[in-house]
Amino acid sequence: MLSSTTNTLAGTIKLNNGVQMPCLHLGVYMTSGRECSNAVTYALQAGYRAIDSAEWYANEADVGSSIKKFLSPQDQLKREDLWFTTKLKSNVSYDDTRRKIKQSIKECGLGYIDLYLLHSPYGGRSRRLECWRAVEDAIADGEVRAGGVSNFGVKHLQELLDSNPKIVPAVNQVEVHPFNTREDIADFCRDHDIVVEAYAPLARALRTKHPKIVELSKKYNCSWAQLMVKWSLQHGYAPLPKSVKKDRIVSNAAVDSFEIEKDDLKALDGLDEGLVTDWDPTDAD
């Protein structure tokens, strides 16, 4: 549930374990080195309080060092005011997952991980459940504050819930935007108090000229990207817009001056065409 604040950058979503998570995150997929470090710095300076990384992205160290550098000269913000997400690359085993979590903590240098996700359901049922047990134990040991999954379809989520886990995933991070609404997954998550994090919320700029996007951007006096970010937020999702450009990072978060009307929200929902911009493991065995 979104907090009542009208300031998106200060807004939070309460997870099913009671932890408050920022509702807007910077995505750093396919960025590294100085480009990644600069993007994280721009975002933090603009007021973002959450960064989404992954073992697979090979930029946990870049993100962590930028966060620490941002925090060091000032005393208003502390480590606990910022949110660092990372993900397990491959579902191998319980022991491997525990090792990878410790390795990610070491890589980022932030002391702990705020949100740790299984990056995909690949690997089969027994490995998924084994790796999830490792996440549960990492939470119990204080290495991770909240656990979740990514790219899990309804059948994977149901399988996990049917296993009577000690901890229910707090988040499912999937590709969601008006052109790929994934209502089946979103509805299931809503029914089970699992927050949907929307990656590729801008559909990787593949539909910027769509007539409805152009029309509504003009109506609300906003950019196409702001419209799509706002669509995510009004659905109660936590979007992860990615950019390495300072002006766009700032602009993507500047969505507090307008509210999409109910009929327009429905019109945007109607743009769904199942557009997958990267990969879709949600139907994996």
Note the overall shape.
Answer: globular
Distance between the termini: 31 Å
- Determine the mean pLDDT: 96
Share in helix:
25-40%
**Structural class designation:** alpha/beta
Question: Explain this structure to me?
Answer:
With 285 residues, the protein is of the alpha/beta class. The protein contains ten helices and ten strands. The strands form two sheets. The chain has an eight-stranded parallel sheet with strand order 3-4-5-6-7-8-9-10. The two termini are 31 Å apart.
Secondary-structure topology with pairs:
Layout: E1 12-14, E2 20-22, E3 26-27, H1 33-46, E4 50-52, H2 60-71, E5 83-88, H3 94-108, E6 113-118, H4 125-140, E7 144-150, H5 154-162, E8 171-175, H6 183-191, E9 195-199, H7 211-219, H8 224-234, E10 238-240, H9 246-253, H10 262-269
Parallel strand pairs: 3-4, 4-5, 5-6, 6-7, 7-8, 8-9, 9-10
Antiparallel strand pairs: 1-2
Short characterization:
The chain is an alpha/beta fold. Helix content is 39%, strand content 15%.
Summary keywords:
285 residues; alpha/beta; two-stranded antiparallel sheet; 10 helices; 39% helix; 15% strand; globular; disordered N terminus
